[in-house]
Automatic annotation (TrEMBL):
Top-rank taxon, per record: Bacteria
Enzyme class, UniProt record, top EC level: transferase
Complex formation: Homodimer.
Record SMART domains: PYNP_C
Catalytic reactions on record: 2'-deoxyuridine + phosphate = 2-deoxy-alpha-D-ribose 1-phosphate + uracil; thymidine + phosphate = 2-deoxy-alpha-D-ribose 1-phosphate + thymine; uridine + phosphate = alpha-D-ribose 1-phosphate + uracil
Key words of the record: Glycosyltransferase, Transferase
Domain Pyrimidine nucleoside phosphorylase C-terminal residue range list: 347-421
Gene Ontology cellular-component annotations: cytosol
PANTHER family: THYMIDINE PHOSPHORYLASE
Homology family: Belongs to the thymidine/pyrimidine-nucleoside phosphorylase family.
EC numbers: 2.4.2.2
Protein name: Pyrimidine-nucleoside phosphorylase
Pfam families: Glycos_trans_3N (PF02885), Glycos_transf_3 (PF00591), PYNP_C (PF07831)
């Protein structure tokens, strides 16, 4: 019997479960251009409205993963753990975490994407380092991880081909916001990238993709189910993105903050996040037998200086100038640094992360369209965070910019992002819970 996309659309419209064959048929034919956009949109809308169960979501992810190249990293010794963050403002985690984990002996073979919207991607941040190249042949990538335990490169265009096509369609048909479709889109790329185990950092709050805690736990659970359903040990953490992470927002500025963290001078929230994620990565890589032992190893990698040494090796191995580690003046620098002052006295109760991210984007630190060229020097360094007391006229942050035309609109947005109140406020917790294949633990 020949399969027809019409019947698959009708079946999902009537809220029935799709089979593996039907899902494979749709993904394969759509990625080859044999199913028109209007029929694909109808099916996506039916999925959006009627949702997919756990099994359908695993089938969809697997079909999307197999729609492009699936990378084989078996030539790399050890258990390769990939970390994925759903992204946020000031999320420079990979730049500090990859050398930390590698310094503890776990192989880090990471493929990253570019940033679109108010956040720069990890690749954009790394490219602020003079000479650093994110283009790597597969052989060099594998050799680098075997020799140095670390390599970060750009995702090849041939990974999860169906995802790019489907995402573009979901974007214009109001079908992005569905847990199964989001989970499948993220996981098909992670699984195609060849890792044995995956640690997910699912951000929650104002500056995150998922604004509410319930949605964030639901997304983490869906992705952990997919990973484990495809025999990759997967753990999800739910972490705060209600205010920016650390103090620096902007490519070159975030590189400096990541290096400072490896020197032992990092912002408390960022250091805690690196310790927590790092410890779980070491457990997944079987380099630490318990979470507590993992935290201990990560802390030692900072105090001993081994993580900083690993960062130098990592930069040099990918063509970058490792002397930036000791001389930040070699990084892109803004021509103007302008202080932004508090307009009233009191305690900071909220800093809207997304608005801070948009302010930084206006200054040139993020992209509004794929074609936008980033200003790697632009960005914002916060001086105060939630829970701090400020006097009227105190400096809230410094804006780093080269383009003065945009300054006023960036400043206005930034000042509005802060809420200052009379009563003392406790900072939010950083980590809300962890999801494993066996349980959902809320802290």
């Amino acid at each position: 019997m020949d399969m027809r996309i019409y019947d698959i659309i009708r079946k999902k419209r009537d809220n029935h479960e799709l089979s593996k064959l039907e899902i494979d048929f749709f993904v394969e034919k759509y990625s080859k251009g044999e199913i028109p956009d209007y029929q694909a949109s109808a099916l996506l809308m039916a999925i959006y409205l009627n949702k997919m169960n756990k099994q359908e979501t695993v089938y969809l992810t697997e079909a999307m993963m197999n729609s492009g190249e699936v990378i084989d990293l078996s030539a790399i010794e050890g258990i390769k753990v990939d970390k994925h963050s759903t992204g946020g403002v000031g999320d420079k985690t990979t730049i500090a975490l990859a050398p930390l984990v590698a310094a503890c002996g776990a192989p880090v073979a990471k493929m990253s994407g570019r940033g679109l919207g108010h956040t720069g991607g990890t690749l954009d941040k790394l490219e602020a380092i003079p000479g650093f190249s994110i283009e790597m042949e597969a052989e060099k990538f594998i050799d680098s991880v075997n020799e140095h335990k670390i390599a970060v490169c750009g995702q090849t265009a041939s990974i999860a081909v169906a995802d790019k096509k489907m995402y573009a369609l979901r974007d214009v048909t109001a079908t992005v916001d569905n847990i199964s479709l989001i989970a499948a889109s993220i996981m098909c790329k992670k699984l195609a990238s060849g890792a044995n185990a995956i640690l997910l950092d699912v951000k929650t709050g104002d500056g995150a993709f998922m604004k509410t805690l319930d949605d964030s736990f639901e997304l983490a659970k869906a992705m952990v189910d997919i990973g484990n359903g495809m025999n990759r040990e997967t753990i999800g953490m739910i972490t705060d993105m209600d205010e920016p992470l650390g103090f620096a927002v902007g490519n070159s500025l975030e590189v400096i903050e990541a290096i400072e963290t490896l020197k032992g001078n990092g912002p408390t929230d960022f250091v805690n996040l690196c310790e927590t994620l790092g410890a779980y990565m070491l457990v997944l890589a079987k380099v630490a037998s318990t979470y507590e032992e993992g935290v201990q190893k990560i802390k030692e990698a900072i105090t001993s200086g081994s993580a900083l040494d690993k960062l130098r090796v990592f930069i040099e191995n990918q063509g970058g100038d490792k002397s930036i580690v000791d001389d930040y003046s070699l990084l892109p620098k803004a021509s103007k640094i302008v202080p932004i002052k508090a307009e009233k006295s009191g305690y900071i109760s909220k800093i809207e992360a997304e608005e801070v991210g948009v302010s930084a984007m206006i200054l040139g630190a993020g992209r509004e369209t794929k074609e936008d060229v980033l200003d790697l020097a632009a960005g914002i360094v916060l001086e105060k965070k939630v829970g701090d007391y400020v006097e009227c006229g105190d400096i809230l942050a410094y804006m780093h910019l080269n383009n003065e035309n945009k300054f006023e609109s960036a400043r206005e947005r930034f000042v509005k992002a802060y809420t200052i109140v009379d009563e003392k406020v406790e900072p939010k917790k950083l980590i809300y819970g962890v999801v494993t294949k066996d349980e959902v633990k809320k802290f």
